[in-house]
Design goal:
This protein has five helices and 15 strands. It is α+β, with helices and mostly antiparallel strands. The strands form five sheets. Strands 6-9-10-15-12 form a five-stranded antiparallel sheet, covered by helices on one side. Strands 3-4-5 form a three-stranded parallel sheet, with helices on one face.
Amino acid sequence: MDDYDPDFIYTDGTEPFTGRGTAKGVISDATPKVVSHMYNKRFAKNGGKVDCMAVIKGGPVLPGVASPRENGYTGAIIRTPWVWEDTVGEWFFEDNTFYSARPMVLQMIEAISRDGNFNINISLTPEGALEPGGERMWREFGAFLKTNAAAIYGSRAWKVLGEGRMAKNRKGIEELVTFPRSGILPSHDKFRMTTEDIRFTEGKDGTIYAFVMTLPKPGGELRIKSLGTDAKLLEKEVANVFLLGSEDKISWKRAADGLSVRCPESLPSGFAVVFRITVR
């Protein structure tokens, strides 16, 4: 911590720094001491702001320490710190790895709409490089992040994680259709999402962001039911609607059954679009 001042540490498999789970019989209280030292150093450095994170898999749940959800999580919103962790291919390099930015983008949206962080592994070749497909995937993913940064970085889950199509799970219970978790696979890349499938985040300033989980039809109309007056989720009035990555004026109307939005004729490239809804 003193030598490198890390933004992020991750320990896999057991509670670190203590000897617990190692069959050595050495048990100490080093975990909270190490993590608190990391946070206190950053707190002092930034004048009261902590912008680093410790992630520990295994061991007791500690305040301020994120818990990883390996292969993702598609349940309800979790307000305590957690990380959606997934991998492209295996956790180590192997030939014929499948690369696609679309599953990365949609899994990330599922994570942040549930108040999670997104942590994904892409293995390097034995020479320490990315394959061309991996580099292309990262660039496409990065372009989406750049366009929609305000809805992602520093955001949190809104009152509801989203809305859209419903389907019965294995227990026969109706639940929201979500994008598949557990890896970046060809079958995931073909999984169909529609303009009914919408996820939400709330920005630092209280702005609401609505992620449409596919590219809508240019000039088409969308309806966001959760922002209608009957839903009673939005106490304030809608002031304006913007499409991130577009300078076109957006036509919109709020009614009892939802917020109707007219898409511009030209849409940002990518795999989803994000509307910024300001309130007053």
